[in-house]
Specification:
The chain has 189 residues and is mostly beta strands. The chain is 12% helix and 56% strand. It has one domain: lipopolysaccharide transport protein A fold (Sandwich). Strands 2-3-6-7-5-4 form a six-stranded antiparallel beta barrel. The longest helix is centred in the N-terminal third of the chain and has 22 residues. GO terms for molecular function: glycolipid transfer activity; lipopolysaccharide transmembrane transporter activity.
Length: 189
């Protein structure tokens, strides 16, 4: 069992890195949201502090970076928990970065992970057409390039601000849909 754990740990780290790197704002048709409790070290099989993971593209160049104050792996649930995750990367050539207080990554199927971000979640796409999404909880499915929340959301651009309850985001299409109670302001020159 210990040998299996030693072989599983690098695979899980790689899967988490791939999910978070691919995510850097993704997922498509997720079917639920959850919560991410703080790291509980006594239950964790592995944990690390001051985590920095860099993903590379096919040519070996850095493409995405994940930093976390702390990360822990819980093998019984095949779950990763992170505190203070921060990431940056490029999607369709555009720089994105984000942060949250906590994140939890769990499997959904054989090759996909669901990542639930909780607490002061912020996703930001840089210029041109900068966009900032703010919410308290966001569920991502990186393999589908999709994100969703049922919580209150604020979308900001240089010329507008929209608020609503619930959102769906298709990162590959650069599309965000607010679901209910939508209000907005738009600045004209």
């Amino acid at each position: 069992m210990r040998e299996r754990s030693r072989r599983t740990f690098p695979l899980v780290v790689t899967a988490l890195l791939a999910a978070l790197a691919w995510f850097s704002f993704g997922g498509r048709d997720d079917d639920g949201a959850g919560t991410a409790p703080p790291v509980r070290e006594p239950e964790a099989r592995y944990y690390a502090t001051g985590v920095r993971i860099v993903a590379t593209d096919a040519d070996g160049n850095p493409s995405d970076e994940l930093r976390a104050q702390r990360a822990a792996y819980f093998p019984g649930a095949d779950r990763w928990e992170m505190q203070q995750p921060r990431w940056q990367g490029r999607r369709n050539g555009r720089p994105w970065h984000g942060r949250a207080r906590r994140a939890e990554a769990t499997p959904i199927g054989d090759h996909e992970r669901r990542i639930v971000l909780n607490g002061d979640v912020e996703l930001h796409r840089e210029a041109p057409d900068p966009l900032t999404l703010l919410t308290d909880t966001l569920t991502l499915v990186p393999a589908r390039d999709y994100a969703e929340t049922d919580a209150a959301v604020t979308l900001r651009t240089p010329a507008s601000e929209m608020t609503g309850v619930g959102a769906r985001a298709w990162m590959d299409r650069q599309q965000v849909r607010l679901l209910a109670k939508v209000r907005g302001t738009y600045a004209t020159e």
